[in-house]
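pasting for ref
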Amino acid sequence: MKGSLWLAWRQQRVLVLTGAALLLACVAWVAFQRADMMSFIDGHHFKVCKGWDSEECAGTDLEQAQRLLSDNDDGIVALGTLSAALPVIIGIFWGAPLLGRELESGTWKLALTQGVGLRRWFTARFGLAALCSVLGSAVLAALVAWWWSPISNMLDGLYWHDGYIFNATGPAAVACALFGLTAGTAAGLLIRRTLPAMGVVLGVVVGLRFLLNTFRSSWIEPTARISQGDAPRENVRSAWSTGEFGFIDGAGRKRPIADACPWGEGLPDLKTCMAQKGFVGRYHKVYPSSDFWVFQWIETAIFLGLAAVLFALICVVLRRRAVI
């Protein structure tokens, strides 16, 4: 290792080594906790079922199930919170100072006097940070998924659409970490002061995550599960319910249940109401668990697209202003 890469390593080794140590600690903790969980499942011959209303959960020992979930959910939530917060942490403590501290203190001038060009200097610094951010976030996301998977989508535990799982696992978590680094780097370059840049990247990453969480269900149309006649609706199981359900008339039109057959004292029951109004079936709109990957790849594309735009902006500013 020499030249600009050696310089990048020397300047960022504390962050790299600290992050690696914390990641190894997480690996050891998750391995111990998951082994204990699997020992409980195997030792009690416990039947792990999916969904809160699935038929296969009917014979489940609820007392043992609640113990299994309570012993693990808090830990998974804590790890998921760390994974979801990692892009903010990377943006604040790695991205913002990456150029902002150099510009604020003027130390970038010394680096460029050592025969290292501006492009090589930036590429080495950002490349090392990006590589570590991607690897670290990928390992942390994999740990969350690995620990959660045996009890995933089970009874009243954590489901795939919960923020502690969705925002902490999958390719979107890794892409968000890269976006956080790029946003922090751009803020440091444009503002040229580390602390204000940290505040900006905090607002940007948290704000974007809030928007994506708010509008996630708008990316694709939910699946309408239809049951014929007055048969009960299909169980939700591990799907993400939209809360939209009702009846289908003879022309195939969907009528929300609150409008078609409102509940209340003195009103007919649902089957009587359906017969009186000529409804021929029931529907319930949900996002099945397989939509996890659809949502993940959509948000991955958003994070990577924004990161690419910010990276291009950084390159333009560096080239046109020669840093100062």
